[in-house]
Amino acid sequence: MLYQLSAVYKSNRSLFLQSDMASTVTFTSVSAQAGLIQKPRNNGVTSYSGLKTSSSSVSFGLESSFLGRNASLRASVAPRIVPKAASGSQISPQASYKVAVLGAAGGIGQPLGLLIKMSPLVSELHLYDIANVKGVAADLSHCNTPAQVLDFTGPSELANCLKGVDVVVIPAGVPRKPGMTRDDLFNINASIVKSLVEAVADNCPDAFIHIISNPVNSTVPIAAEVLKQKGVYNPKKLFGVTTLDVVRANTFVAQKKNLKLIDVDVPVVGGHAGITILPLLSKTRPSVTFTDEETEELTKRIQNAGTEVVEAKAGAGSATLSMAYAAARFVESSLRALAGDPDVYECTFIQSEVTDLPFFASRVKLGKNGVESVVSADLEGVTEYEAKALEALKAELKGSIEKGIAFANKQQEAAASV
User: Which of 1, 31, 322, 380 has its CA 20 to 30 A from that of 109?
Assistant: First the structure.
């Protein structure tokens, strides 16, 4: 499947997508003002499903769009003007946000950098890694989109990478290999996340922080403890990126039930590993029924989808491309929220009061200051299967959270004793 993207910018208002599939966007005027049509859902959450224009012809064929109905990346290929909450004035889609990717030369970091470079909301893309990042930056800098690409190599340049950044994305760490669980990654990736978040706390404490490094169920609590120790913790701005679970759930459900992928939305709650991943199939939109066998099959496949990719790659890596896609979607959602878009919803692993666990993945509404609200209604009226699965995941998720907190506290104690 080949997608050819050609970007033509005039006052940062026009981005064209041409595809060999049925999905096309055509603007007859580069100065067209386009906004997103909102469709209310049964659960009260608003989603975006197309474009409207005030003065020019806009066609948006979505029958086979790879970006999907709720995928924020789809919104990035169209100029966006969002009404302010209390006035008739509008927000112009200027490229005005700085995004840093820490671990930018890795298997996730490289495609993620490319997808973020495509966003018309990004003015600067900062790429950091301990090696091999200069070539990645040089390559991406040739793409004709507004974002300026800057590279930073090694700990001595990390502070400069982070100064003034609005969103920090952390995919740094070692990938899963055949036979490895996310817990096997803990000792290596925990230390990496700790050191990077310390730098974030020192240089851009107000930034949105997106944690991709696994095990997310532990690395997000580690990040929270580090930020607390630094005195800059804001739980509304720390996110574990679980978007890939939603992307997979949407894909697998659409395939199983022969639905248009663009219409499918499945909330996924809990955590980001094994049985802690709980797709709420009963909350699928559009409403669809599943047999007990289908529910079991789909739930297990969504939970084990990462292993499916690891085994298919036979030792050559883990889920890098789909993870980059999902992470870019979450970045774009964050940028839309920062820009004042009033209807941005994503599932994410955050500090939470929805259950008795201190962290939990839920669907949230994002705003300029991070998490504005949690859609707790997703956990109401679930099926018996989902209710049992929710109780079953709690022990494992609790253990992973406590493991992360204990690691951070032990590191602090060790540093204090030196």
Answer: 1
